[in-house]
């Protein structure tokens, strides 16, 4: 799929070369790399090699997103994974929202992944499933779901509209990932905002229950909404994830 629109400032993919331990960082549905860049920069500062791909159809215009499928989004993270594989012996994956869904997909598909940190990951959003089922009755574009942030001084760079066609794609992705959660065996640090107006927090509890990992932990974020990576708990997320990576990088 060729995108019609230029990439928005701050929505570009990011790459940092560092050690032989790499971290794949994925943004979410209708969002951009801007939501994950602070994490990527902190990981690079800690010495890791970091890749933050721009998911196809994202970071340009919602008309581009409308033309993409969930397979395109998987392709985007897999390209980032291959970039890291050429440089690293160890790879971790983290992601926000649908980026968390893609994080789970990667752990299901690539058993060599050393550990995952899904953040407010989506595997079952009833309102989206309902929208996908009723898409013939809905307008072509719905109002945005972006920027669910407690801190009033921060804004997420995300689309102002959500293509109804894209709802079907994220629902398909969530169904696929949900069905294979048992395949995940790597260590997992699951981070969940106690108050989230986009992804029900029960999603993270279900992930904890369904994955087969011997080492798995669910940690609540008490002072952030959905886009926790840009919210008040950002320092906590960076600290917890860096400790997790350090603990598992040499196993």
UniProtKB/TrEMBL annotation:
Name the residues annotated as site: Important for substrate specificity.
Answer: 145
Name the SUPFAM superfamilies on file. alpha/beta-Hydrolases
Any GO MF annotation of the entry = carboxylic ester hydrolase activity
The annotated active site, in chain numbering, is 97 (nucleophile), 196 (charge relay system), 226 (charge relay system)
The UniProt record gives the binding positions of substrate as 29, 98
Which InterPro entries does the record match to this protein?
Answer: AB_hydrolase_fold (IPR029058), Esterase_lipase (IPR012354), Hydrolase_4 (IPR022742), MAG_DAG_Lipase (IPR051044)
Per UniProt, residues of the Serine aminopeptidase S33 domain are 20-229
- The protein depicted here goes by the name Putative esterase
Q: What is the lineage of its organism?
A: Bacteria, Bacillati, Bacillota, Bacilli, Bacillales
């Amino acid at each position: 799929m060729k995108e019609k629109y230029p990439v928005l400032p701050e929505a570009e993919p990011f790459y940092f070369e560092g050690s032989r331990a790499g971290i794949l960082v994925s943004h979410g549905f209708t969002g951009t790399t801007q939501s994950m860049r602070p994490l990527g920069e902190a990981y690079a500062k800690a010495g890791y090699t970091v890749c933050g791909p721009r998911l196809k159809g994202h970071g340009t215009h919602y008309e581009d997103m409308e033309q993409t499928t969930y397979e395109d989004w998987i392709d985007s993270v897999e390209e980032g994974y291959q970039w890291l594989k050429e440089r690293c012996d160890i790879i971790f994956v983290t992601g926000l929202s649908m980026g968390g869904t893609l994080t789970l997909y990667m752990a299901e598909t690539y058993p060599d992944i050393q550990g995952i940190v899904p953040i407010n990951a989506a595997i079952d959003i009833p309102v989206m499933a309902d929208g996908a089922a009723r898409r013939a009755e809905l307008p072509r574009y719905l109002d945005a779901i972006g920027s669910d942030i407690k801190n009033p001084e921060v804004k997420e760079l995300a689309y102002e509209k959500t293509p109804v066609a894209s709802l079907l794609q994220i629902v398909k992705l969530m169904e696929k990932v949900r069905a294979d959660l048992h395949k995940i065996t790597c260590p997992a640090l699951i981070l969940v905002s106690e108050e989230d107006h986009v992804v029900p927090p029960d999603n993270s509890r279900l992930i904890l229950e369904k994955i087969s990992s011997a080492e798995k932990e669910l940690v609540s974020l008490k002072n952030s909404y959905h886009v926790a990576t840009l919210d008040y708990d950002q320092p906590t997320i960076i600290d917890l994830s860096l400790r997790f990576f350090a603990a598992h990088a040499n196993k």
